[in-house]
């Protein structure tokens, strides 16, 4: 029995040395490619991993004059305060609602647009539609927010002028709770659906055209081919992108909401990111805001792991 264990141990060590040697040989062989990758690795280390030491202030009573090392430990005190805060409950609810609606409508809008573009056979018109739908992605939310404010202005906005033309009363869309979240979803679709369709268009382009030809010979129409060929062929890409989006479900879009919201819509529009900004930078309560950030990132990690596991259980490849 001991000899068998010793033999197994030797085999595992030999395999480990062999894997390390193979990895090193692969790195040497592709050294040029790894050199191109090096700046990105350094960037992640400097801006993502080194600052992770700063999350310790979530467990301290941090003050600027004492610094991170000099501030006293308070353990889970900030997390207890967070859970007992009705304001935190409100922003957590808003974050989940807005992120859920974005996952349902914004994420799927890229798939729908890709499927629609795939059905356009006039190349010039197809390129025109692609260019028009891609363009908003390259505009910052400062610009898009300004456009939305002008369009939705109750006094001079185009939308309200059309409403008044038909005898209606002007609506202050960005200051009414019932309109604010729909405006967020629609503006996000406009800004991101074109860019989001690129990956799905690339996946659709890789589908074997003989499948479509065989379906045509069997009498299948466009809708049937879309349902029976296109969607199943890109299902794995859809699942992987959904996992990525689920990982960001605790991030409802700080830039967008910060440029559009106001105190009148805090009840439905205030999210974790804007709450952290207000508490951490404006009120200078750094430890509490860090605790909220830690909570948000831990939940995001759990959701990614759960989504990946569910994807593999249902027969998809997942991320790993």
UniProtKB/TrEMBL annotation:
CDD domains attached to this UniProt entry: TM_PBP2 (cd06261)
Domain ABC transmembrane type-1: from-to ranges: 92-307
Intracellular or extracellular location(s): Cell membrane
Signal sequence, start to end: none
Top-rank lineage group of the source organism: Bacteria
Transmembrane segments: 32-50, 96-117, 138-159, 179-205, 226-250, 286-307
Keyword field: Cell membrane, Membrane, Transmembrane, Transmembrane helix, Transport
Predominant subcellular localization, coarse grouping: membrane
Transport listed as a keyword: yes
Membrane topology category: Multi-pass membrane protein
Protein name (record): ABC transporter permease subunit
Lineage: Bacteria, Bacillati, Bacillota, Bacilli, Bacillales
């Amino acid at each position: 029995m001991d000899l068998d264990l010793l033999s197994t141990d030797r085999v595992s060590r030999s395999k480990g040395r062999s894997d390390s040697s193979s990895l090193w040989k692969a790195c040497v062989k592709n050294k040029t490619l790894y050199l191109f990758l090096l700046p990105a690795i350094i960037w992640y280390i400097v801006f993502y991993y080194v600052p992770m030491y700063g999350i310790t202030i979530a467990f301290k009573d941090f003050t600027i004059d004492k610094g991170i090392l000099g501030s006293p430990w308070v353990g889970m005190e900030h997390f207890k305060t967070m859970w007992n805060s009705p304001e935190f409950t409100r922003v957590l609810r808003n974050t989940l609602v807005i992120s859920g609606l974005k996952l349902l409508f914004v994420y799927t809008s890229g798939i729908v647009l890709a499927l629609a573009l795939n059905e356009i056979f006039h190349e010039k018109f197809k390129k025109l539609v692609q260019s028009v739908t891609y363009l908003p992605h390259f505009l910052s939310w400062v610009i898009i927010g300004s456009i939305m404010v002008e369009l939705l202005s109750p006094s001079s906005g185009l939308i309200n002028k059309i409403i008044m033309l038909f005898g209606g009363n002007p609506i202050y869309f960005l200051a009414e709770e019932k309109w604010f979240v729909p405006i967020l979803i629609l503006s996000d679709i406009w800004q991101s659906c074109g860019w989001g369709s690129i990956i799905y268009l690339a996946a659709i382009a890789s589908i074997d055209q003989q499948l479509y030809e065989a379906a045509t010979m069997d009498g299948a129409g466009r809708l049937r081919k879309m349902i029976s060929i296109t969607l199943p062929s890109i299902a794995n890409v859809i699942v992987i992108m959904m996992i990525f989006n689920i990982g960001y479900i605790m991030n409802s879009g700080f830039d967008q909401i910060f440029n559009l919201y106001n105190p009148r819509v805090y009840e439905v529009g205030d999210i974790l990111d804007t709450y952290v900004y207000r508490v951490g930078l404006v009120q200078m309560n750094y430890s509490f805001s860090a605790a909220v950030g830690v909570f948000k990132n831990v939940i995001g990690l759990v959701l990614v792991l759960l989504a990946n596991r569910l994807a593999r259980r249902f027969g998809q490849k997942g991320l790993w």
